[in-house]
Design goal:
Layout lengths: L7 H22 L4 E5 L26 H20 L2 E7 L1 E3 L5 H11 L15 E3 H13 L6 E5 L7 H12 L10 H10 L3 H8 L7 H7 L7 H15 L1
Parallel strand pairs: 1-2, 2-5, 3-4
Protein name: Nucleoside-diphosphate-sugar epimerase
Pfam family, one: Epimerase
Length: 242
């Protein structure tokens, strides 16, 4: 959201495409049987209508350079799989949180722990998140599950939350009840646009949901960690290391 490169797509391609495919080619040459690639939900797009989640087999629609580069890496890996016989598994996680989480998630925990009032008490969006422990569990499942070969899977905690609900449950995990002011979403959107922070407003007020039915069905996988347990673990680490 604060891109400074003159050509962001070229910079993302160096790592997400060239670096990934270089490693994958070496893996195939070394006889590696399966390559698991952590992609991004940004391959699907930037947001969904509420109650209209992305599905693993939807036509990709990346918007920003990061998402485009991740899609290009996926396409290159699947082509390599067809040529080499090395199996590829592609995972597209949503926002990942857990002990040591940084960026906006950590900032919000800091604000909540200080009791700072936030104008986020009336947001009715729905967003999918994934706890780090759940993502790792799925990666482990995909290492040798026969049904995972050459498939794309979406991953989340299986419970979608509004921003308001997430903040309340995050506050409970911190032992600091969230002080949320019921400011209308339209006011937040307008203020953010005036300040040139439309992308932040989209993350706070917009919906981004994923359907993990394919992941459950093909792999027999269920997220082992609940949202509240994951939030408590995240909050405990934050309080011990701030």
């Amino acid at each position: 959201m604060d891109e400074k490169s003159a050509d962001p797509l070229a910079e993302f391609r160096k790592v997400n495409v060239d670096g990934t495919l270089n490693l994958a080619r070496q893996a195939a040459a070394a006889g590696v049987k399966r390559f698991i690639f952590i992609s991004s939900i940004k391959v699907n797009g930037e947001g969904t209508g509420r109650g209209k989640p992305y599905k693993a087999d939807d036509v990709p629609a990346p918007v920003d350079p990061y998402g485009i580069s991740k899609l290009e890496a996926e396409q290159g890996l699947l082509a390599l799989a067809a040529e080499s016989g090395m199996e590829v598994v592609i995972l597209r996680p949503v926002l990942v949180y857990g002990p040591g989480v940084k960026a906006n998630f950590r900032s919000v925990m800091s604000w909540l722990s200080k009791g700072i009032p936030l104008p986020l008490g009336s947001i009715r969006n729905k967003r999918s998140l994934v706890a780090l422990d759940n993502l790792v569990d799925l990666i482990v499942t995909c290492i040798d599950h026969t049904a995972a070969a050459n498939q794309v899977f979406l991953v989340s905690d299986g419970e979608d939350l509004s921003t308001t609900e997430l903040l309340r449950r995050m506050g409970a995990a911190l032992g600091k009840p969230a002080r949320l002011l019921p400011v209308p979403e339209a006011w937040l959107d307008g203020a953010a646009c005036l300040l040139g922070k439309g992308a932040i407003a989209q993350r706070l007020c917009g919906s981004l949901q994923v359907d993990i039915e394919k992941t459950r069905r093909l792999l027999g996988w269920t997220p082992p960690v609940t949202v509240d347990d994951a939030l408590r673990k995240t909050a405990r680490h934050f309080q011990e290391h701030r």
